[in-house]
Design brief:
Layout lengths: L1 H44 L2 E4 L9 H11 L8 E7 L20 E4 L7 E6 H5 L5 H9 L1 H21 L8 H20 L4 H6 L3 H20 L1
Parallel strand pairs: 1-2, 2-4
Antiparallel strand pairs: 3-4
């Protein structure tokens, strides 16, 4: 009888010890996951903005850049170190590009090289067009925020699909990146327009305006071919 009681007591103690170990292990894993998540968030939030441009930026431009990045998932930005603002992009490697580049390049993605993390370069001169006439400068300034958002979404899309989505084939990269930028720009624009009276007024007309824009794009593409 005493032997059976000792066996039962031993089993209870063993089960208790196993439960304690499992509970401790679970809490340890949970704590590590929280710390890792905090490190990833902190690393993404520390994206540097280097303003090397001599062109005056619109009011709140750097704050808008951070808000645009905040719209994107943090995992899509993993590995990006900084975003550099310059007057115009002057990269010697672009001279040997097989595809001729017309006009000023608005942005450029610099992939990771050895110990240097990936980073983005944005040409403020290409977005604001300070050397053009008054009409073009005014149009560029009024559309600066949306053009900047579209450009950032496109550059982050390049980073995401080139470094983090290895399953995407090389031939389908361009349409995937374009779709990524268009999707995020549309969602971002809708959020920006939530409290806009003008947007609420034009919202019922949006489908017709989008069809009209597509028709104009097709017509312009057809004229280029002829």
């Amino acid at each position: 009888m005493n032997f059976e009681l000792n066996v039962v007591a031993f089993q209870q103690q063993t089960c208790g010890a196993i439960y304690y170990l499992l509970f401790t292990f679970y809490n340890l894993i949970k704590l590590m996951a929280i710390k890792l998540a905090g490190l990833r968030t902190e690393k993404t939030s520390e994206l540097k903005i280097e303003n090397q441009s001599s062109i005056d930026l619109p009011k709140g431009a750097e704050e808008n850049i951070r808000k645009i990045f905040a719209h994107l998932p943090t995992e899509h930005q993993r590995g990006l170190e900084k975003i550099r603002l310059v007057d115009f992009i002057n990269n010697p490697q672009l001279k040997n590009s097989p595809v001729p580049i017309k006009g000023d390049l608005p942005g450029l993605y610099h992939p990771k090289i050895q110990n240097k993390n990936a980073w983005l370069e944005i040409a403020i001169g290409a977005l604001l067009q300070p050397t053009e006439n008054f009409g073009k400068r005014w149009m560029a300034k009024t559309s600066f925020k949306s053009n900047l958002a579209g450009l950032i979404f496109s550059l982050v899309g390049q980073h995401y699909y080139l470094t983090l989505r290895h399953s995407v084939k090389k031939g389908s990269l361009e349409p995937q990146i374009r779709q990524y930028a268009q999707k995020n720009l549309k969602e971002w624009s809708e959020k920006q327009a939530d409290n806009s009276k003008r947007a609420k007024f034009f919202k019922p007309l949006r489908p017709y305006m989008e069809r009209w824009a597509k028709w104009l794009n097709k017509k312009a593409a057809a004229q280029k071919k002829t």
